[in-house]
Design brief:
The protein is α/β, with parallel strands linked by helices. The chain has 23 helices and 19 strands. The protein is globular.
């Protein structure tokens, strides 16, 4: 796992321009948090490729940027900066060796280079993993920007009159003088709507390489090609065969993702998803004689003792975490956080820097960052249960007829979310200009138009395929982006086994009746892993990532917001309705979900103000 950055300028010459190389080096340096172990910069006449490395595979030999010489002429043919992991690199390496390729290292990066030389662009269809890379073809003077199928690893680009800027995160691009930090109305709509439009980069002129896509940059301009997307395939396996196939895939996925030359662990919440991954990893490590699986969880001071059930969470995680850890004999550690930890200005600033945009989930972002920071002191790679809910249909709204049948994104149906303008803290005139309902409506229609269908199915089956597609292409991107940013801010690589494209494609085409054959959520996953789990965890109801229930935290948030309102120079003041915020700050705290919604809005305003202070962006409201 690493951070990449660079620039292409077809009118310049990086080899003869030290100032341009220094700009490229500065862009790369912004990625230091993603790659604390090493750095490098490679230049040719029209391209500069920068790399910050987090060493995972072939620690001594996998340094980057990495080049590949032409076997005939001996001249440099390809150069690459690469972030991520290719889990099937060993098989590909053997195949390439059989075709006559000779390797200098044991790294997966070199396999990608040789694969490109052998198969060209088609090598991306052979890769199993999470990755984002930039490859420069010296002979043809062109750059390729490539992102994995599910968009686990981020990659942004910004077209210039003479080429392109690129980076793992927006901050790398914004470090170049040609890139302006401008957020226009569309950018604000993305920030406030919770939509995550594929390809939208937040800042004007900035784009994100869409999952499963390849961007080609030549003198003539840019072109984009999708090399993978979900397909509609008739599912013919019966229930037993389907469950067996899911288990077979999970066994293979976990086995591949346990490969690491540095310490590895799992993230454990005590829910079905993370427990299944931890249990499968524990069994495979034990069979290899590699010792117990290490696992980590997050908790809050006093959380379990004072826990109160609400519409989102029926039970605290702690008892289930301890039960699973004991059941699989894990070497487990709980990272316990206090209100002071969650309100720590340094931690909150780190979250903002990691995000680059004020896309905050409040204490859930801060606690995730602090969890990863603590883990990084003990491990470098972590397996996560992220995305199982999107793949197997785990969220409660999947099973709520009103949410399913609502003519919008189901996670927005019937909630006090971005479309409930009566609770918004933003200026009414700005909300009118933004027209968030219209933006969400158009985004929803665009997404529905992409859904691949099979013929001869019921209306309900057709609708559930749409619901699954919306989650796998929109909602999952919000969570994957959050997990990547919070983990890489600490130099921790987080792997997501449930995002293996083979599993995603297979389960996507499984009929909804099979996904819920026992009348519950995630039936297939439960059946495929029940034998490695305690019954209490296999049967546990979905519980989201924890949020502190300590009233002292909300009090601190309200205090910070009151201080902001008292500051007439606060940059966010021109975007918000101060009277409405003041009324919310002074109102008695509500309980349950409504408390989280209002608190989240308060934290969003604080984060927006901090972002405006840090980045000094141009925010266009008309």
């Amino acid at each position: 796992m690493c951070g990449i950055a660079g620039t292409v300028d077809f009118t310049g010459n990086f080899d003869e321009d030290p100032a341009s190389r220094e700009v490229a080096r500065a862009m790369t340096e912004t990625m230091a948090c993603r790659g604390p172990d090493d750095e490098g910069l490679w230049t040719t006449a029209h391209a500069a490729l920068g790399h910050r490395r987090l060493a995972i595979i072939d620690v001594p030999g996998g340094t980057q940027p990495m080049v590949l010489d032409d076997p005939v002429t001996g001249e440099t043919r390809l150069a690459i900066v690469y972030s991520g992991e290719v889990y099937n690199f060993t098989e590909l390496r053997e195949e390439l060796q059989g075709a006559g390729h000779r390797f200098r290292t044991d790294s997966d990066t070199e396999v990608v280079l040789h694969g490109w030389l052998e198969w060209g662009e088609d090598v991306v269809t052979r890769l199993n993993g999470m990755f984002a890379f930039a490859l420069w073809d010296v002979r043809d003077d062109e750059l390729f920007l490539v992102r994995d199928r599910m968009g686990i690893k981020p990659l942004y680009y910004y077209a210039t009159p003479d080429g392109v800027l690129f980076g793992s995160e927006p901050k790398a691009i914004l470090a170049h003088p040609s890139a302006d930090a401008v957020v226009d109305l569309d950018g604000l709509r993305e920030l406030l709507s919770h939509v995550k439009t594929p390809g939208h980069g937040g800042y004007r002129g900035m784009h994100e390489v869409r999952p499963g896509s390849l961007v080609r940059v030549r003198r003539e301009g840019l072109s984009v090609r999708r090399y993978w997307q979900l397909e509609a395939i008739e599912h013919t396996d019966d229930q037993d065969t389907t469950v067996a196939r899911v288990r077979e895939l999970l066994e293979d996925i976990v086995s591949r993702q346990l490969i690491s030359d540095v310490p590895l662990c799992s993230l454990l919440s005590g829910g079905l998803d993370s427990s299944a991954i931890t249990a499968l990893a524990a069994r495979q490590l034990r069979d290899r004689g590699a010792g117990p699986v290490r696992s980590f969880s997050v908790d809050f001071v006093g959380y379990e003792d004072a826990f109160a059930a609400d519409p989102m969470r029926d039970t605290p995680d702690g008892p289930y975490v301890r039960e699973l850890a004991e059941y699989v004999a894990a070497d487990h550690e709980a990272i316990t956080l206090s209100n002071d930890d969650l309100m720590d200005p340094g931690a909150r600033a780190a979250v903002l820097r990691a995000r680059d945009l004020p896309l905050s989930l409040g204490d859930m972002d801060t606690s995730l960052y602090l969890l990863f920071k603590a883990i990084r002191g003990r491990s470098t790679v972590a397996l996560s249960g992220e995305s199982a809910d999107e793949v197997f249909g785990g969220y409660r709204w999947f099973h709520d007829a009103d949410a399913v049948n609502a003519d919008t994104f189901p996670w927005m149906a019937g909630t006090s979310g971005p479309l409930d303008l009566s609770r918004s803290f933003f200026d009414p005139e700005l909300l009118t200009a933004l027209d968030l309902p219209g933006y969400v409506e158009q985004s929803y229609r665009d997404a529905l138009a992409e859904v691949p269908h099979v013929d001869g199915v019921s209306a309900q089956e057709r609708r559930m395929r749409e619901i699954c597609y919306l989650h796998l292409t929109r909602f999952v991107q919000i969570l994957l982006d959050r997990k990547d940013r919070m983990s890489m801010a600490s130099g921790l690589e987080v792997r997501v086994p449930f995002c293996d494209h083979r599993l995603v494609q297979y389960v996507f085409n499984t009929p909804w009746a099979l996904k819920t054959f026992d009348g519950r959520e995630k039936s297939l996953l439960r059946a495929a892993t029940r034998d490695v789990l305690p019954a209490s965890i296999a049967d546990r109801v979905k519980s989201p990532y924890p949020s502190t229930q300590d009233p002292g935290y909300e009090k601190a948030v309200r205090g910070d917001l009151a201080d902001l309102l008292a500051d007439s120079t606060a940059p966010v003041r021109r975007l918000v309705d101060a009277d409405r915020i003041r009324a919310a700050v002074d109102a008695p705290a509500e309980s349950g979900t409504s408390l989280e919604v209002d608190r989240a809005q308060m934290e969003n305003v604080l984060q927006l103000n901090a972002w405006m202070e840090r980045y000094s962006p141009t925010v266009e409201t008309s």
